[in-house]
């Protein structure tokens, strides 16, 4: 019916395309491709999250194209990118969080501070949109994301930090909440990866990344009394000593950014990545299922443990394994493979169910209570990062590829790439 809005169907299939390809599951990849050709449809009355559709569908299609060279994926990616463009029709060009892709009408999450857009949402379009311009020859996609940068750079930042909320009409920050986990996370990731993906020509992205990390170290990174480094949340100058599972991706990010760190700080950034990996491993090790909770605290005598019932769940998230994979590639310390294998065994033991894998309601309990959901990022991220952790470094090497925030590999755009795509393989 025309007044009920639906969704774009096929997230799990599209999110898994590149994983199937990388794992050489040729039959399954072919089947998935045929599904995309016949059934993937963006002409639906759906109110979608611009961020989620971008990282899962646009990112998934772009990677499938670059890996396989199959034109259908390029075509679908550009078609979907065009559908997302009306989200940028705001006074500042900061996109809406939600968009009806039939009507082109956008709005923000009703819960977000003062009608704001979310940093981790509008800040996580850059990599995909640069590739959409590259593959379509249409500069509009890259222009939209470069404008987001411009708006951010005109604003004063409290203590050099980026608040999670920005109002797309006034161009002003909402609440001064800062997080390297939910609502903030992948914004920082994309500053670093934009620079890497540009073959290290995007000096603005580089500068923004390393300045942000400096502010994060000064204001958010702390050490517990028993020596665990963690990243707290900042609320208008006050720290909440809580670290989300989502925040654990930052270990890998610090490691990946270590090489370019200014002022001889390479070793320091690697060390920071290693410490975050260790803390996040502790959050897994201190549960009965050896799978980490959604959030853990450093408060009232506890360290790296969830204290609230509604933070004890595990929904097959990848961030801790992602950090193991980066730290393994960067250091070859065998502990990262050991820790990864512990996660494999725990997933098999506690999450495997008929027909797939399920999230767990309480990782501190001795009996699994399954939530009966297999998130699409389990196939795109968790399994892919595990596979890469136990593969050789020349499978999707960091010198040629960056992973979008949903683990979809995108080729680095070398300066002379303009008209030939072959050298990206
Ligand atoms: C994924 O969709 C992406 O990794 C995103 O950046 C954060 N949340 C999930 C995985 O936990």
UniProtKB/TrEMBL annotation:
Q: Topology versus the membrane, per the UniProt entry?
A: Single-pass type II membrane protein
Instruction: Name the positions where Ca(2+) binds.
Output: 405
Q: Which Pfam families match?
A: Glyco_hydro_47
SUPFAM superfamilies associated with the record: Seven-hairpin glycosidases
Which InterPro entries does this UniProt record tie to the protein?
6hp_glycosidase-like_sf, Glyco_hydro_47, Glycosyl_Hydrolase_47, Seven-hairpin_glycosidases
Q: Which residues form the active site?
A: 52 (proton donor), 185, 294 (proton donor), 319
Any idea of its EC number?
A: 3.2.1.-
Which GO MF term does the entry hold, naming one? mannosyl-oligosaccharide 1,2-alpha-mannosidase activity
Question: Belongs to which family?
Answer: Belongs to the glycosyl hydrolase 47 family.
Q: What pathway is this protein a component of? A: Protein modification; protein glycosylation
Could you tell me which species this protein originates from? Answer: Alca torda
Q: Single GO cellular component annotation?
A: endoplasmic reticulum
Q: Does the keyword Methyltransferase apply?
A: no
What function does the entry list?
Involved in the maturation of Asn-linked oligosaccharides. Progressively trim alpha-1,2-linked mannose residues from Man(9)GlcNAc(2) to produce Man(5)GlcNAc(2).
Q: Where in the cell is it found?
A: Endomembrane system
The record's Gene3D superfamilies line, in alphabetical order, gives:
1.50.10.10
Recite the UniProt keywords alphabetically. Answer: Calcium, Disulfide bond, Glycosidase, Hydrolase, Membrane, Metal-binding, Signal-anchor, Transmembrane
Q: Which cofactor does it need?
A: Ca(2+)
Disulfide bonds listed in the record? 248-280
Top EC class of this enzyme = hydrolase
Q: What is this protein called?
A: alpha-1,2-Mannosidase
Q: Which reaction does it catalyse?
A: N(4)-(alpha-D-Man-(1->2)-alpha-D-Man-(1->2)-alpha-D-Man-(1->3)-[alpha-D-Man-(1->3)-[alpha-D-Man-(1->2)-alpha-D-Man-(1->6)]-alpha-D-Man-(1->6)]-beta-D-Man-(1->4)-beta-D-GlcNAc-(1->4)-beta-D-GlcNAc)-L-asparaginyl-[protein] (N-glucan mannose isomer 8A1,2,3B1,3) + 3 H2O = N(4)-(alpha-D-Man-(1->3)-[alpha-D-Man-(1->3)-[alpha-D-Man-(1->6)]-alpha-D-Man-(1->6)]-beta-D-Man-(1->4)-beta-D-GlcNAc-(1->4)-beta-D-GlcNAc)-L-asparaginyl-[protein] (N-glucan mannose isomer 5A1,2) + 3 beta-D-mannose; N(4)-(alpha-D-Man-(1->2)-alpha-D-Man-(1->2)-alpha-D-Man-(1->3)-[alpha-D-Man-(1->2)-alpha-D-Man-(1->3)-[alpha-D-Man-(1->2)-alpha-D-Man-(1->6)]-alpha-D-Man-(1->6)]-beta-D-Man-(1->4)-beta-D-GlcNAc-(1->4)-beta-D-GlcNAc)-L-asparaginyl-[protein] (N-glucan mannose isomer 9A1,2,3B1,2,3) + 4 H2O = N(4)-(alpha-D-Man-(1->3)-[alpha-D-Man-(1->3)-[alpha-D-Man-(1->6)]-alpha-D-Man-(1->6)]-beta-D-Man-(1->4)-beta-D-GlcNAc-(1->4)-beta-D-GlcNAc)-L-asparaginyl-[protein] (N-glucan mannose isomer 5A1,2) + 4 beta-D-mannose
Membrane-crossing segments per the record: none
């Amino acid at each position: 019916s025309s007044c009920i809005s639906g969704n774009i169907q096929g997230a799990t299939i599209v999110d898994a395309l590149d994983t199937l390809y990388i794992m050489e599951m040729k039959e399954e990849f072919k089947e998935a491709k045929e599904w995309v050709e016949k059934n993937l449809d963006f002409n639906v009355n759906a109110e979608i999250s611009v961020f989620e559709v971008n990282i899962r569908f646009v990112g998934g299609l772009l990677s499938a194209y670059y890996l396989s060279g199959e034109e259908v994926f390029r075509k679908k990616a550009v078609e979907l990118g065009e559908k997302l463009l009306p989200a940028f029709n705001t006074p500042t060009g900061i996109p809406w969080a939600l968009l009806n892709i039939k009507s082109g009408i956008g709005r923000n999450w009703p819960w977000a501070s003062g009608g704001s857009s979310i940093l981790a949402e509008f800040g996580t379009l850059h990599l995909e949109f640069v590739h959409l311009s590259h593959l379509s020859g249409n500069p509009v996609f890259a222009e939209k994301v470069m404008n987001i940068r411009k708006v951010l750079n005109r604003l004063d930042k409290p203590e050099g930090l980026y608040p999670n909320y920005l109002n797309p009409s006034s161009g002003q920050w909402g609440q001064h909440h800062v997080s390297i986990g939910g609502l903030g996370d992948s914004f920082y990731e994309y500053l670093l990866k934009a620079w890497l993906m540009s073959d290290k020509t995007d000096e603005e992205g580089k500068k923004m990344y390393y300045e942000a990390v400096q502010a994060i170290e000064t204001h958010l990174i702390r050490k517990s009394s028993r020596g665990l480094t963690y990243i707290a949340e900042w609320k208008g100058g006050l720290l909440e000593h809580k670290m989300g599972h989502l925040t654990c991706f930052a270990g890998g990010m610090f490691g990946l950014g270590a090489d370019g760190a200014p002022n001889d700080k390479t070793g320091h950034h690697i060390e920071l990545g290693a410490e975050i990996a260790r803390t996040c491993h502790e959050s897994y090790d201190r549960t009965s299922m050896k799978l980490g909770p959604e959030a853990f605290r450093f408060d009232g005598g506890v360290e790296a443990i969830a204290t609230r019932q509604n933070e004890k769940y595990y929904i097959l998230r990848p961030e801790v394994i992602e950090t193991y994979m980066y730290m393994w590639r960067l250091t070859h310390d065998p502990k990262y493979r050991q820790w990864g294998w512990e996660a494999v065994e725990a997933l098999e033991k506690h999450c495997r169910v008929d027909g797939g894998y399920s999230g767990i309601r309480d990782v501190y309990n001795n009996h699994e209570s399954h939530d009966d959901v297999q998130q699409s990022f389990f196939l795109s991220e968790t399994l892919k990062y595990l596979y890469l952790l136990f593969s050789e470094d020349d499978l999707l090497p960091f010198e040629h590829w960056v992973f979008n925030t949903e683990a979809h590999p995108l080729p680095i755009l070398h300066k002379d790439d303009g008209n030939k795509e072959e050298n990206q393989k």
